[in-house]
Amino acid sequence: MLPDGGADDEERWLAEGIAGVQQNAFYMHRALDSNNLKDALKYSAQMLSELRTSRLPPHKYYDLYMRAFDELRKLEMFFREETRRGSCSVVDLYELVQHAGNVLPRLYLLCTVGSVYIKSKEAPAKDVLKDLVEMCRGIQHPLRGLFLRSYLSQISRDKLPDIGSEYEGDADSINDAVEFVLQNFIEMNKLWVRMQHQGPVREKEKRGKERNELRDLVGKNLHVLSQIEGVDLDMYKETVLPRILEQVVNCKDDLAQFYLMDCIIQVFPDEYHLQTLETLLSAFPQLQPNVDIKTVLSQLMDRLSSYAATSPEVLPEFLQVEAFAKFSNAIGKVIEAQVDMPVVGAVALYVSLLTFTLRVHPDRLDYVDQVLGACVKKLSGNAKLQDSRATKQIVALLSAPLEKYSNVVTALELSNYPRVMDYLDNSTTKVMALVIIQSIMKNTTCISTSDKIEALFDLIKGLIKNMDGAQDDELDDEDFKEEQNSVARLIHMLHNDDHEEMLKILCTVQKHILQGGPKRLPFTMPSLVFSALKLVRRLQGQDGDVIGEEVPATPKKIFQILHQTIEALSCVPSPELALRLYLQCAEAANDCDLEPVAYEFFTQAFILYEEEITDSKAQITAIHLIIGTLQRMNIFGVENRDTLTHKTTGYSAKLLKKPDQCRAVYACSHLFWTDDQDGTMDGERVLLCLKRALRIANAAQQMANVTRGSSGSVALFIEILNKYLYFFEKGIPEITNTVIQDLIELIRTEKQSENSVADPSTEAFFASTLRYIEFQKQKGGSLGEKYEQIKTT
Predict the structure, then answer these.
(1) By C-alpha distance, which of 188, 120, 180, 190 is closest to 156?
(2) What is the DSSP string of 228-295?
(3) Are residues 507 and 449 in contact, defined by beta-carbon separation less than 8 angstroms?
(4) Is the predicted pLDDT of residue 710 greater than 70, yes or no?
(5) Is pLDDT of 778 > 80?
(6) Which of 127, 417, 563, 748 has the most CB atoms around its CB within 10 Å?
(7) If you compute the radius of gyration of the chain from its CA atoms, what whole number of angstroms results?
């Protein structure tokens, strides 16, 4: 083993070695120039003796070796020239160099002359190569032996008796070429592995690093093998691969096994791997437990899947050799053999197998499900995964089918898909659920059966209900909103043109989202309600009775479901949202000519208003929503409509602030005059509402005068004036030009009073209203005539 020495010592030893090489090379060149063979051999041997050092680490020994290598190339040229001129027989030269005093210089010189010997063709290349590879056994020091055999490989690679080569001999010569390279490889690997076991245990890590620097010397032999033209599939299958794998398995060294298996995969053709898959895969379970098998296997599968992708015509061969079954079986054996393999390693293997399957056999869903099932089997007995790396691999495993098929429906057909998801922790389950929803959105996937939706909601259950006692409060508000908005968007993607099936879909969705708890329902419920209302619009006119268990999809049935659903929301409580949804349902019931249903929804809205909505701003918004919805209703009979309008005007007059009361009351005037053919037209009650609004506006002015010492803005009067003008144009008899003129004068009087506060926006509003009156006068026609008697100045 190398002696202990610091970096400075190593630099000094290297400098001394290089100086020795250069000095002897100088004398060698002088001897070559004078054609003095004896001195040339003497100084070349002394030069090569510098390579006998044991003090240098591999990377510095390599520097020294390259200096000597360059000089040996020049020496080889001299030998070739000498033999060409006939000054010296190559056979004699081959014998002569074997008299060098030390074995290492002797073997370097022997290899150099051997190269000339083969090129001269005075002896069969196979005999010379066999002699050289056997002779090199004389060096058993790992470092020196590796570089010597590397030199042998370098000088012989273009002189192998290959098919088509000028050194090709008889029919068996190709076997000799392969045998030479294999033997050199085997010996080099033995030397390389031996390095790990020489020296103290404390330097084991250092030796591992040094060996890693030398691995390409060993791997080059496999590259040479792959370049031999005569190595066809049969020879590779019968001779080359078994011999290499035998050496790989028997060396029992982690680094060597990993590197050499990787080399095999990288240097030999893909079609060879495909046809020898069983032989190659049989070696994996025999490798050492610490070998990173998943990386090598993954590379093999990646190469073969890329091969299939670039050459579609070879796909039948994959089926013929049963590639999937062999990979699946091999992975199972590897996991079984390596009992200490971490979960992340096993899952990574299944990710690679799934990627291979999706690229080579995308039409075989049964293969995909088998991979997922094998993963479930490996994970069985484990609780939720805590290892972040394993979790990441599981997400990759589950995401692969979504990316490949661009259709979640395909993933829903995989029975083992949800079983794999069950091993994810709660946070990752949500991440995966979001990935699934994003896939649906991106590919606009339409999920159209209740069974598939049941399966889908089982997959995304982490988003729609609390898991294993987890609380919503643990989530960031923004993240939670984004999650629930995703679920809401998903509900809109669920569709079926068949009414019966669509009703089943809605019932399935309802069942799941009602488990969401008070924090989720306000996000997800509106989507369900509006999806149901879309179905109602499609079913308008079908008001069949609900009888028996297997009921047809009718508006009545859907409204029953909606009533139950919104009732759950009003208990959350989220009364403002529930009220809006009740009003939406009431409007839909109106369009379906279902008066009792519409009345019931309005009743529920009023109950919510009375009992649940206490905030004054929420009350204002709610009452205006009620007024707007009720104004559009045309289905109610006189009694029901009177009841609802009476309630609405009563609530309007009871708002907390006078200005709010005023605006709500004059808005109620629209409830008594609608433009529909069968609409309500009650001019007296319109006028009554507007007069009541005026009284409230006047009370608001007086209150402002008492509390602030000023009468405040006259904006309310101007707003009421605009309402008068609206109904005046509608032709309500009770709204006369005299009434409007009086109101204009009232506004002017209020503006000119001492307590009035100047407000530019109010002034502009009033001026704009008067300009409108003048515009209508100038416009002429019947409406212009009505306006003629109103004076604006």
Answers:
(1) 180
(2) -TT--HHHIIIIIHHHHHHHHHHH--HHHHHHHHHHHHHHS-HHHHHHTHHHHHHHGGGS-TTS-HHH
(3) no
(4) no
(5) yes
(6) 417
(7) 46
